[in-house]
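Renewal narrative, Specific Aim 1. Our central claim is that a sequence can be written position by position from structural information alone. The example that follows is taken directly from our test logs and has not been curated for this report. It begins with the structure tokens describing the chain, in the order in which they were read.
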């Protein structure tokens, strides 16, 4: 249903730990956005944490079976402000998901509430579980 292959994610995480990431006092590449994914009834639900991101700065694209979510957290401070501590990462966050053929990518819906982007991807009709009726063959009568 959802293929989880992102070979560079763990490399990025390790690099940030070794060389300092958010909280080091300097701007660093934001880590990819945390997510949860689960199946609920006839749909796959994927939620991304995007606190502090304006909904107009979120892009969701699907090309073939690749879903891409991009979001940008922009600075909100004025020009005459002297920053004392800056631990919240700014910049562009991006995440790609490889979707299985069993999902209906033409009917994806997206909602953003309280800093969480929730995508609902219906399972394609042909992929839904269905019950098969078992019949019996007619018996032949020996004459």
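The sequence written for that structure reads:
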């Amino acid at each position: 249903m959802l293929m989880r292959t992102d070979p560079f994610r763990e490399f990025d995480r390790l690099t940030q730990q070794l060389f300092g990431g958010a909280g080091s006092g300097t701007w660093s590449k934001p880590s990819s956005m945390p997510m949860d994914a689960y199946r609920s009834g006839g749909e796959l639900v994927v939620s991304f944490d995007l606190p502090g991101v304006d909904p107009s700065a979120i892009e969701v694209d699907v090309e073939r079976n690749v879903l891409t979510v991009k979001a940008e957290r922009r600075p909100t401070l004025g020009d005459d402000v002297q920053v004392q501590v800056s631990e919240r990462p700014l910049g562009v966050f991006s995440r790609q998901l490889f979707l299985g053929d069993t999902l209906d990518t033409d009917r994806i819906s997206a909602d953003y509430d309280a800093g969480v982007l929730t995508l609902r991807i219906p399972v394609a009709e042909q992929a839904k579980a269905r019950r098969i009726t078992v019949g019996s063959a007619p018996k032949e009568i020996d004459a």
